[in-house]
């Protein structure tokens, strides 16, 4: 992995990828680099205007790229089902579950879930379940990549209070949702292995990368000083979105990625070339991952089919 960069991405010609949250930041860079290597890329984005603008921008930056926008709101399970139903392709090689929200004031999804848990985990759990049959049909080389965070160390999922109704704390909620991402990948990888599937499930995190996530919560609450502080901190210490996308791109395309790998920057969970990353022990707990899986199927109504 030493010095791995976007120039090391293998040829993706003939492959199809779905990237959620591809209208900006890490998701946009991930989609652009996959398209530059020849993949057909679907930009799955919540906002129609921003999604179509991203498609136009990507076409300008990667002439001849095979890209298209498709609406997907992970905070609305009806939208997730509509996206999956409308997705028409003979194959699906890469599902990059990139979209997410960070440290928002207390909000609920359309279906009544805590917004960060509902968007970052449950929406992607449902989407993956609905698209997994096509990934399995594609077989060799197919991968599911889920974007977690080094901040998953802030806390794990509490099955007694999944939606933090007892006491909501925005950063704890974010950490829990990112631990949920890792527990999901752990259980998905375990089940794929048990089935003998050739689909690989891996996770990644960007380190500290400058995106609009850091200031979104402050913007929602109209706390101008906090929004400005986040922007200044990004400029001072964060790495670029291009660098932050490398772990996702590595997990999605590099040879040798294994089931349940967690790829992140090599320097203190913060910056640098991608490598296998540290993770909290609780994200490797079989009992916790199986429990989260069961409750996720119940809450989303999406049941995975296994042979």
UniProtKB/TrEMBL annotation:
Signal sequence coordinates: none
| Pfam annotation, one family | adh_short
Q: Which UniProt keywords apply?
A: Oxidoreductase
Q: Which SUPFAM superfamilies match?
A: NAD(P)-binding Rossmann-fold domains (SSF51735)
Sorted alphabetically, which PANTHER family does this protein's record hold?
PHOSPHATIDYLINOSITOL-GLYCAN BIOSYNTHESIS CLASS F PROTEIN (PTHR43157:SF31), PHOSPHATIDYLINOSITOL-GLYCAN BIOSYNTHESIS CLASS F PROTEIN-RELATED (PTHR43157)
Designated name of the protein? Oxidoreductase
What species does this protein belong to?
Streptomyces stramineus
């Amino acid at each position: 992995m030493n010095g791995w960069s976007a120039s090391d991405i293998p040829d993706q010609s003939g492959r199809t990828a779905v990237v959620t949250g591809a209208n900006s930041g890490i998701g946009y860079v991930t989609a652009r680099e996959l398209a530059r290597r020849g993949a057909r890329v679907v930009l799955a984005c919540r906002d129609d205007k921003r999604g179509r603008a991203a498609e136009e921008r990507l076409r300008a930056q990667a002439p001849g790229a095979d890209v298209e926008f498709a609406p997907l709101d992970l905070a609305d399970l009806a939208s997730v089902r509509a996206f999956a139903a409308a997705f028409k392709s003979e194959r699906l090689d890469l599902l990059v579950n990139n979209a997410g929200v960070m440290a928002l004031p207390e909000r609920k999804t359309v279906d009544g879930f805590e917004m960060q848990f509902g968007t970052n985990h449950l929406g992607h759990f449902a989407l993956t379940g609905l698209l997994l049959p096509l990934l399995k049909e594609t077989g060799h080389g197919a991968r599911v990549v889920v974007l977690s965070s080094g901040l998953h160390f802030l806390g794990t999922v509490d099955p007694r209070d999944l939606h933090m109704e007892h006491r909501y704390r925005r950063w704890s909620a974010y950490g829990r949702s990112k631990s949920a991402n890792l527990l999901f990948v752990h259980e998905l990888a375990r089940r794929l292995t048990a089935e003998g599937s050739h689909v690989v499930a891996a996770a990644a995190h960007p380190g500290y990368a400058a995106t609009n996530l850091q200031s979104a919560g402050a913007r929602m609450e109209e706390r101008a000083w906090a929004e400005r502080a986040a922007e200044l901190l990004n400029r001072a210490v964060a790495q670029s979105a291009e660098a932050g996308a490398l772990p996702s791109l590595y997990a999605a395309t590099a040879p040798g990625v294994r089931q349940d790998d967690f790829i992140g920057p090599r320097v203190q969970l913060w910056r640098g070339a991608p490598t296998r990353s540290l993770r909290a022990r609780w994200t490797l707990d079989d009992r916790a991952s199986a429990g989260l899986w069961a409750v996720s199927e119940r809450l989303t109504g999406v049941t995975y089919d296994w042979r």
